[in-house]
Amino acid sequence: MPTLAELRPGQVGRVEALRGDPALVQRLYEIGVLEGDTVEVLGFAPLGDPVEIRVGNTRLSLRNAEAASISVQLV
Amino acid sequence: MDWQLPTVVVVLTLSLAYLARVSWRTWFTSSKSGCTSGCGKCTTPQPDPTSINRIRLPQV
Amino acid sequence: MFNALSGLRQHVGNYPGVTVEMSKGHFTHAGTDFELIDLPGTYSLAPRSPDEMVAVDLLLGRRPEEQRPRVVLSIVDASNLDRHLYLTTQLLELGVPVVVAVNMIDVAEAQGVTIDCARIAEETGLRVVPIQANRRIGFDALKDALVAASKDTAGQNGPQLPEPVEREVAALKAELNGDVPTFLARRLLLDVDGHTETWLVGKHGLRLKQQLTEARTRLAAEGCSIPGIEAKTRYAWVRSITAKAVTKPATRPVTGTDRLDRILTHRLWGTLIFLAIMFGVFQAIFVGAEPLMGLIDDGVSWLADGVKEALPSGPVRSLLADGVIGGVGGVLVFLPQIVILFGFIAVLEQCGYMARAAFLMDKLMSRCGLSGKSFIPLLSSVACAIPGIMATRVIENPRDRLATILVAPLMSCSARLPVYALLIGAFLTDGFAWWVPGVTLFGMYMIGFVAAPLVALALKRTLLKGGTPLFVMELPAYRMPTLLGVVRRMADAGWAFVRRAGTFILASMIVVWALLYFPDRDAGGRFEERVAELKESGDDAAANHLQAEWKRQSVLGRVGQALEPVFAPLGWDWRIGVAALASFPAREVIVGTLGIIYEVGEVDDDEGEESLRGAIRSEWSGDPVRGKYPVAVALSVMVFFALCCQCASTLAVIRRETRSWAWPAFTFVYMTGLAYVGGVATFQIGRIITDMFQG
Predict the structure, then answer these.
(1) For residue C584, which of C496, C495, C680, C511 has the smallest C-alpha distance?
(2) Which of C47, C540, C593, C686 qualifies as a cystine partner to C579, CB 3.0-4.6 A?
(3) In this complex, which of C103, C104, C314 lies closest to B1 when CB atoms are compared?
């Protein structure tokens, strides 16, 4: 199962699971990245990191290392 | 010339006293007005609407 | 919102033991007096640091200085309803009546989203009021709701966590002998490695930690794994309500923000645009300010001349004309530039571009062990390091926060602008291409922008070793800055600058003047009179020579001469060195000090250019070192100022925020060292390059 970090700009994924550092996972949950939600990858910053995504109506900035905590199913 | 020197001494003393007082307040009290910087940040309120319920991205 | 409700009736509350300050305001409605406390914005009530704990404690009524709140006003953003209501569900656990204000209704409608607040109220039992804070719409209804809520005796009910979870919470609470309220026991269970856990495990020992682990394992087995179960429960409740009360269009419309961000956060174009904007700002600072600066300068000269004519020769006349008017006036000349700088800062901050800039810079920041969250406090420091340092409070990780604080003074603050402007104006304008001043100014700021992350990197590798922090940041929608907001910021900054010039800088200039004036006589009599006599007799060369002699033997002059070996590698003479020393209380003082040392008042200036510039140029051209390498010396002075910490106020704030004397001392030492090395390198390299071109 790919992670969010592996998606290209424009691709949309459905969140399957969140794994990793509990503090990070909790923060992601609080922001509203839940299993079943769709996330869209909007783009990457100049040096490839961080990645800008959209969840619901919010644009978020995540490091690749953090995006790798989110397993997604390509939609 | 006779009055000039004492005048200058008085002015100088007042300036030094003022600087001493400001330094004291800056370093040893926690009042917000203890900052002598000229940024005007303290007086400028945050622009409406502020980032409410978000991790407050501080204003420049 | 807070400002809209309480107007100007605000003050700041300090809480012992933490750096958090919360604004308090007052307003009255329908005969009821309200005290309003503004809590720091957050996504959730899961405390991650002592500062966040203060807000939670205050809401629970556990702060000794504050009464427990009677009503909680939860402000949610209409275009992000779900996420903001998440926090509201946590607020409902406090047992205090909650009023919900749905803000930015207009923005939501622009996206095709309609919200039925009455329906939300019906489904939740809460009072829900639509508002538009920036236009003050809905405030009366809101205040009515607050008054009504204050008469409620109990809070409302929100989503309940599944029974197994609550069972464990009750068990933990019992374990702690009811020491903590249910709310905190719940946080203890739910926030893995959170602040509550750290605090309570520290207090009660590892046995508690073991019980926590066992409880969490049990819950995972029952399908209620921590932390996910909280989010699932809360969002399920929230979404069931918004499903009934909110209508969204089938496909999300592409907003203006989306279109803009496609370019502005683009890897290549976004960065180029960012650099172009920065250059544009700096070029504008130069070009735009010129006419006004000329006006102020003329006014100052006129005033100085007037004083010279009105008073007989002597210390008072010199004090007024050279020290006060020349010194403070020389600083006030830069008012237009300061105002323009703050105008741009206000526009950039209000339109939401700052978050994008942080996004673009995050990779660089994270390579240096910081996060994009550090970028915004650092960018704030371009106005003044002090609010920048205070803005680091949003950085949760204490080591990252400290690293950011320690490098914030490197970001060229607005007090350095007069120095840059003066020297660039004198040595890098005439005879150079039109873009040179803007680019040079840009370069000086870049020195700070580059030095800060590098120093932070060094710190994180050595003194402040630690992991790279999380970076989850929200990029808010773009908005048009209001003209009023921008003008207000410009006016505030301008007024603050003038006030600082008229108080602190004035006092400093008087002292500096005195140190450069006395002793005012030697065996031959008073210098001032002899210089005037020589001038009158037409012997300008001898007059200037005596003038220089006078300054040289003054208190500050002697100090400067003694330190000349220290200044030499920088390409400075004792005059520049003295001016740099004198500017340690306030950077702008260098301008006034140079004015006194180069005796601007005596220089006849009818070319329409700023007289101090001309004076410095003509003085340096006669000197072997500075005449040969004026640009190199000018640059070395600027680089020194870019890197040096000449602001006692900043150091004082560092002391306050870090609660130690060691860190401000460290900052002062490392920055001064860096500045010296930088200045020397600049001059020596500049000298070599100049020789190459002329050789």
Answers:
(1) C511
(2) C593
(3) C314
Size of interface A-C (CB pairs under 8 A): 117
Write b or e for each residue in C103-124: b if 16 or more Cβ atoms lie within 10 A of its Cβ, otherwise e: bbbebbeebebebbbeebbebb
What does each C-alpha distance from C242 to C85, C118, C357, C407 come to in angstroms?
10, 12, 33, 45
Tell me phi and psi for residue C74, to 5 degrees: -105, 120
Q: How far is CA C332 from the centre of its chain?
A: 22
Instruction: Select from C663, C678, C671 the least CA-distant residue to C644.
Output: C671
* This prediction's pTM: 0.74
Name the residue in chain A with its Cα closest to that of C271: A46
Q: Nearest by CB to A45, which of C46, C191, C363?
A: C363
Nearest CA to CA, how far is A32 from chain C (Å)?
A: 6
Distance between start and end Cα atoms, chain A: 12
The sign of the CA dihedral C421, C427, C428, C431 is: positive
Query: How far off is chain B from C376, nearest CA to CA, in Å?
Result: 7
Taking CA–CA distances from B2, the nearest residue in chain C reads C314
In the structure encoding, which two tokens stand for residue C380, read together?
């704030």
- Residues from chain B contacting residue C2 (CB–CB below 8 Å): 50
Q: Does residue C622 contact residue C598 with C-beta atoms inside 8 Å? A: no
Query: Does residue A63 sit at the C interface (CB-CB below 8 Å)?
Result: yes
CB atoms under 10 Å from CB of A10, counted, come to 9
Q: Which of A12, A33, A47 to mutate to test binding with chain C, by most C CBs within 10 Å of its CB?
A: A47
- CA distance linking residue A63 with residue C455, whole number of Å: 22
Query: CB within 8 A of C216, min separation 6: which ones?
Result: C189, C192, C225, C226
User: Contacts for B43-48 with beta carbons within 8 Å, 24 or more apart?
Assistant: B43/C492, B43/C496, B44/C488, B44/C489, B44/C492, B44/C493, B45/C3, B46/C3, B47/C349, B47/C350, B47/C481, B47/C482, B47/C485, B48/C1, B48/C3, B48/C4, B48/C133, B48/C134
Q: Tell me, yes or no, if A32 comes closer than 8 A to chain C by beta carbon.
A: yes
Question: Mutate which of C59, C316, C350, C488 to disrupt the B interface (most B C-beta within 10 Å)?
Answer: C316
Neighbour tally for C185: CB within 10 Å? 23
Of C414, C473, C652, the CB nearest to B39: C414
Structure tokens that stand for A9 in this block: 């700009």
Between B30, B36, B52, which is nearest C41 by CB?
B52
Contacts of C358 in chain A (CB under 8 A): 61
In order of start, what are the domains of chain C with their CATH numbers?
2-150 (3.40.50.300), 167-221 (no CATH), 501-694 (no CATH)
Q: B28, B33, B36: which to substitute to probe chain C, counting the most C Cβ within 10 Å? A: B36
**Of C531 and C146, which is predicted with more confidence?**
C146
Distances (CA, A) of C608 to C332, C427, C600: 17, 16, 14
> Measured between alpha carbons, how far is A52 from A9 in angstroms, rounded to an integer?
9
Q: Write the class of the CATH domain A4-74.
A: mainly beta
What does the alpha-carbon distance between residue C692 and residue C624 come to, in Å, rounded to a whole number? Answer: 18
Verify whether the Cβ–Cβ distance A45 to C231 is below 8 Å: no
Tens digits of pLDDT across chain B (60 residues): 578 888 899 999 999 999 999 888 888 776 555 455 555 555 444 433 333 223 333 332
| Per-residue pLDDT tens digits for C217-246 | 999 898 888 888 999 999 999 999 989 988
Contact A30 C111 (CB under 8 A): no
Cβ contact C100:C146 at 8 Å: no
Interface predicted TM-score (ipTM) of this complex, two decimals: 0.90
Give the chain B residue whose CA is nearest to the CA of C103.
B49
